[in-house]
Backbone:
């Protein structure tokens, strides 16, 4: 069962496959009338499930009826800052023993600027039952998706670099996101490179050097616009896929030669050591433009990958045949 958000329609949908033919039987409305819903997270205890939905301006938790595929009795846990260039709000529960703590990613208002709202360009954290919305990590311009590494239990997140510095600068990023760390934006990017075009201050010491800022784990071609990421686990995948990571490149909008519009596979060591990258699914980018733009990813242990596409309005199922 897939649950998906449709921000442009203010809905959250369930996509059941009751006959197990690999195609959704219907698109059941779980919740509607929402303000740009994006991030979704489940928490199930004692036979009951709650669904957390991050709208662009609020975080709410619902009772979720698994049989009826309905969310009800919403309770607002926190107000979130609305507007700006980046309106998605993504959710991820931390792994045990902190699995009652929910991460809320909030992008910047701008391409590059000094934010006035202390919640912007941050990943915040809040308890499952509410309470204070506090900073978890900062300096993240637009980290739209996060995932938990299955071995290290660290939080990994994609990050889109700023625009208007040319075709190849700055890199987009994959970060290992740790509590209390800062990842550089708006004055640093990539491997702690100083954005001297924006930050014209004169410093006695390099403002981008560790421990002030944390470098990216992996640099990505600028303007690839990395979004969804999913770690590869389970016997359903080929043996050489073990420890790997799928990442969806949404694709460039302002690069001279377009880039992205694909899903790639990162080859990683057992603890996340970078070993290489290769294309996994391509074809969205055509000579006359793009047919679609991949966004979210869900990788199952049986060798199935689900890919959402916010331009074509589709969810694809990629599966292993032998």
Residues:
């Amino acid at each position: 069962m897939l649950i998906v958000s449709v921000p442009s329609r203010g809905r959250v949908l369930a996509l059941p496959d009751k006959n197990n033919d690999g195609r959704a039987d219907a698109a059941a409305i779980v919740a509607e009338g929402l303000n740009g819903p994006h991030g979704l997270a489940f928490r199930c205890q004692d036979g009951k499930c709650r669904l957390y939905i991050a709208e662009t301006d609020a975080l709410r938790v619902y009772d979720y009826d698994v049989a009826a595929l309905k969310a009800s009795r919403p309770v607002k846990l926190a107000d979130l800052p609305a507007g700006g260039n980046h309106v998605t709000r993504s959710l991820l529960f931390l792994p045990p023993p902190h699995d009652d703590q929910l991460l809320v990613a909030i992008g910047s208002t701008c391409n590059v600027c000094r934010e006035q709202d202390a919640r912007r360009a941050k990943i915040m954290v809040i308890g499952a039952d509410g309470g204070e919305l506090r900073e978890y990590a900062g300096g993240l311009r637009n980290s739209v998706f996060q995932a938990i590494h299955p071995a290290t239990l660290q939080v990994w997140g994609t990050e889109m670099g700023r625009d208007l510095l040319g075709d190849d600068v700055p890199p987009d990023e994959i970060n290992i996101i740790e509590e209390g760390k800062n990842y550089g934006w708006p004055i640093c990017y990539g491997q702690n490179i100083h954005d001297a075009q924006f930050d014209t201050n004169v410093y006695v010491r390099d403002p981008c050097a560790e421990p002030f800022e944390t470098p990216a784990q992996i640099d990505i071609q600028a303007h690839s616009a990395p979004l969804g990421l999913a770690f590869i686990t389970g016997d359903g995948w080929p043996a050489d896929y073990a420890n790997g990571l799928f990442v969806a490149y949404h694709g460039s909008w302002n690069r001279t030669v377009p880039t992205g519009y694909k899903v790639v596979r990162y080859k990683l060591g057992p603890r996340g050591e970078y070993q290489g990258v290769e294309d996994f699914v391509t074809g969205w980018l055509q000579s006359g433009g793009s047919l679609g733009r991949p966004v979210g990813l869900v990788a199952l242990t049986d060798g199935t990958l689900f890919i959402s596409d916010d331009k074509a309005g589709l969810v694809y199922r990629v599966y292993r045949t032998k």
